[in-house]
Amino acid sequence: MKNLILLFVICFCSIFYSCDSKNKILKTETANDLKEISFITSDSIKIYGDLYEKDKSSPIILLFHQGGSNARAEYDSIIPKLISQGFNVLAIDQRMGGQYYGGYNRTVAQIKDHIFGNPYSYCDAYNNLEGALNYVIGSGFTGNKILWGSSYSASLAIKLGNNHQTDISGVLAFSPASGGSMKNCLPDPYFESLKIPLLIFRPPNEMKSENSKTQFEKARRFGHQTYAAINGVHGSSMLVKERVGADTSKAWEVVNLFLAKFKND
């Protein structure tokens, strides 16, 4: 009996440790200088994130997750690929997020009213993205700064890119949201005034929508790049083979070609 109890304890601890490890900062072997960071927004919300730093003169990608998600879970297989290409990376947990893809959203977890539902809207998260940009500028990163958004954060990234064109070098927008909840922060009005490189991605099922087709046409009319993935799912996960259930190499080729222009010579 004692042996059975001991075996149960050992198995439980092993499972717990395995699960708990997935909630820790992304595999530390992907970067020598890695730290959890935080900053305070203009309306006093503490935003948590993970900074993967190569050196401050290298380009940096600011990663923003989709609704119901969090930085570590959504980007766990994407960040190592970006680091391997010489990019610094900052991935934050916005105030609109959760446990999608696993893990948890550190920012949402510490919002006082989250027990009764998140009191914020998707548009309210704009200053989270702006705060991340201010953080990397204030921390002395001098290389090119690239925004990367997923779903609602893709729309907000386009807005941020438009409003800070002297600080930002380019924007990648994966499935930029444009539903009713985004009516006060739609991305389309910025296509004409945005002069820095923009690349918009959508998976095949989203391209069946007239709204998506119209968005692509408008973006191209003002000189922006669009890509309808051969395979794909919503948001940045269209780059993750396990989530797509099919090859994602073509989509990565397009991403890497876009990013190549921002690398240090």
From TrEMBL:
- State the superkingdom: Bacteria
**Gene3D superfamilies, alphabetically?**
alpha/beta hydrolase
- Protein name in UniProt: Serine aminopeptidase S33 domain-containing protein
Task: Please give the organism.
Answer: Urechidicola vernalis
